[in-house]
Amino acid sequence: MVYRRQTVVLIFWLGFLVVLNVLSVSSIRVNFDSKQIHFSTASQQSVYHDRKSLEELDNEFSEEILPIVKLFTDHGDLLQTTGIRCEVCHAIARHIKEFLMLNATQEIIIQEGILICSLLRLQTQRVCSEIIPKFGPWVITVLAHSVFSAENLCTKAHLCPKPDTPEKPEIIDLPAPTTENLSVSENQNGGDDQRIWVVHLSDWHYDSEYGEGYEVNCGEPVCCREPNAFGDKATTPAGKWGDYNCDAPKRLIESMLEFLPTAVPKVDFVISTGDLNFNFKGSLFLSYYICISDVWAETPSTITDNNNKTANIWRKFFTSAPFFPVIGNHESAPVNSFPTSSISDIASVSWLYSTLSSQWNNWLSADVLESIEKNGFYSAKLPKYKLRVLGINTNYFYKLNLWLLIRPREEWDPEWMLKWIIDQLDEAEKLGEKVWILGHMSALDQDSFPSMGVYFSQIVARYKDTIVGQFYGHSHWDEFNVIYDKSINDPSKDPEAVGIAYIAPSVTSFKNMNPAFRVYEIDKVTKKILNHYTYSMDLQEANRLDKPEWKLLYDAKSLYGLENLDPKSWHDLTEKFITDTNAYKIFKKTASRNHHLDKYGSCSALDTQCRNRIICKLRGTNSGHGPYSDNELCKKHGWFPHLPDDWFLNAALGKHVNVFVDLDKTDKDNKFKSMGDNDKDNDGDGITFKGLSKTVVRLIMRFVMGNDDAVCR
C-alpha cells in the first residue's frame, strides 16, 4: 500500500511538472530546500475569459503551495511529501486544471507539443504537425474534466476520502432463470445438411494506398506507401502481396475472398469483427497510450472513404450469405474516440454510426440499421434458425476510449449497453432462441476496463445455456479467452468454465503475422460450435513466388486433441499447456500463423514465467478479472529496465530494454533485483530520453511495457 501511494503521488507530481514544462514560454526559478525548481510563465496572453492569467497562477502556486512540499532527493530516486493535506491537494489540482482550461493554454500546448514531438523525434516533423492538433484538444478536454479534477486526483493519491457518490456495483442485477425447459436435443449424427458454416474475418486494416516497392521502414507510423523519404530507392521494398510491417493491400484481401468458396462447403454466415482502417507502427510510447493510425490524414471524410472502399469489396464478394459486421476501435477519427450520448454537448460520433449504417444497408434490416445509428450496437433476429445475433460496440469497454473518463458518474454502464445485452438475452431465453455475440474486443482483453470483464462474466454465467457463440478480434493473434463463473467460491473445486470467447486471427499481416481467417462448423439444431478451422497464407512465400496460396493451417479438434469445443475443454487445454511443452509450443506457433518468428506477444521465450503469462492471458486474467487472478500461476509481475543504480535513463522507449522482476523479491527500499534478461524484444526505432531518474524510468517502463502485448491493435 505504501509503494502504491508513493507511485500515485509520484505520477501526480510528474504529470504536473510535465504540464508546466509543456506550457513554458519563459521561466522563473524558485529556491526551496537548496534546490532550484523551474516554473513557467506565459506572457502576452490575449484571451482570459475572466480567469487568472498564467503568471498569476504561477505566483499563487509558488507562494501558497510550494512551502508545504518537498520534492526530490539529489538523484530523484524518491519523492517525499510533508504536510500534504486534502485541501492542499485540491488547491494543486484546481491550479493544474485552470492551466488546462485557459483557451490560450490549449494553443500553447499544441504548439509546444509539436516542437517537443519533433525535437525528440517521436515522429517526423510532418507527422508531428498533424498528430498534435488532432489529438491535443481531445486529450486536453478529457484531462481537464477527469484526470486533473480535484476529486479524482486527490482520491487516487489517497490524500482525500472517497467522494460520497454511488460507486460502480460489484454484482449486477440479473433476472432469475426461466423455469420452462426450452432446451433442444443434441444432433449427434447430423450430416452436412445439418451443419452451419460461419466465416469469421477480423482486423482487416485495409490500406488502400499500399504500394508495391515502397519503403517498409520509412520512419513514419504507416509505411509501404507514398510519400516517403526513400523515393524509388527503397532499401526494404514492400512486397506485391503485403509485408509483415505494413497493413493489407487490396490484392491480398481479394485473393483471400476469392479462396473462400474453396475452403468452405457452403457459406451460411459471414461475420466481420471490426478494425477496417490502417494500423500504426512507431514509438511504443505513442502507440500504447494513443494507439494512433495515420492520424495526420484521418478525418471523418477519409475514414468514410476508406470504409466505402471496404464496403465495395464486400459487395463484390458477399452477395448471398447474411453478413454481420461490428465496429472496431479504428473506425473513428480520431482513433479510439467514442463518446457516449450523455456527453454529446462536448463531442459526438453520430457521424460514424450514420455512415456505417448507410454502408451496411446491403446486409442488415431497417430496425438493425436504426439501432446502429443510435449507439453502434444491434440485435438481429433469425427466426429460421431460432437464433439471435448481438453485434455489440466494445469501444464502451475500451481503456483507450478516453471519453469514458468523463461520462457521468452514475453511468457506470456506458450507453447502458450491458443492460441492453441482458434484456436481449432474457427475451431470447424466454423464446427458446440461441444467441451469438459479436464484438471487436473481448471484455476480458487486457485493453478492457476490469469492471467490464467482471460484469460481462456475470452475464455469461447467468445465460450460459443461451449464449452458444462469442466471436471477437482486436488482438491480431489466433487465440481465445475462457470465461468463468466467479460466484462459486469453493476452494475445493475448480472454477466452472461457462463461456469461451473465440478471438480470430487478423487479415492484416501487421505486425509479424501471416494473414488469416477462421471458419466455424456449427450444429444446425443446437447452434453449438463443433470445430473451427484456421486458414492462412505464407506471405514470405507469396512474395517470393508471386503466388498467394491459402491453406488450412489447422482445425482445433485435431490439433489439440479436443473431444468437443465446450468451455471446459478449452480450460482443460490451458491446464495441459502447464505440463505439456509440445502442446504449448504448438499453440504459441499457431498464434502468429506459423510465421518464422514463432512469437506470441512479447513472450518469445520458453521459460516457465513466459508460459504462465500466456496461460493466464487465455484465462482472462489480463483484464484484472477472473478466479485465477489471485492464483499463484497468475500473480502479477512488473517489467522494469535493467539499469545500474547510479544511472539515469538513456534507453529507447520504443524497445523492450528490460528484465523480468518478481515484485515479491524486492527489498524494503524498493530496489529492484534482476532475474535475468529473458524477454528482449528489439522491435521499433524508439526514442532516447535522458535525464530522468531511475525510479521515474521504472514507473514509465512499467506502464508503457507492462502488458504481454503492448502493440497498438
From TrEMBL:
Question: Which residues participate in Zn(2+) 2 binding?
Answer: D275, N329, H440, H474
Biological function: Converts sphingomyelin to ceramide.
Write down the superkingdom of origin: Eukaryota
A Pfam cross-reference name: Metallophos
Q: Which UniProt keywords apply?
A: Disulfide bond, Glycoprotein, Glycosidase, Hydrolase, Metal-binding, Secreted, Signal, Zinc
The family line of this record is: Belongs to the acid sphingomyelinase family.
Binding positions for Zn(2+) 1 per the UniProt entry: D203, H205, D275, H476
Subcellular location(s) per record: Secreted
Which GO terms of the cellular component aspect does the record hold? extracellular space; membrane
Q: Name one GO molecular function term.
A: metal ion binding
Cofactor mode of binding and number, as noted: Binds 2 Zn(2+) ions per subunit.
Q: From the UniProt record, give one GO term of the biological process aspect.
A: ceramide biosynthetic process
Ranges for domain Saposin B-type: 82-164
What cofactors does this protein use?
Zn(2+)
Q: What is this protein called?
A: Sphingomyelin phosphodiesterase
Which cysteine residues pair off into disulfide bonds?
A: C86-C160, C89-C154, C117-C128, C218-C223, C224-C246, C603-C610
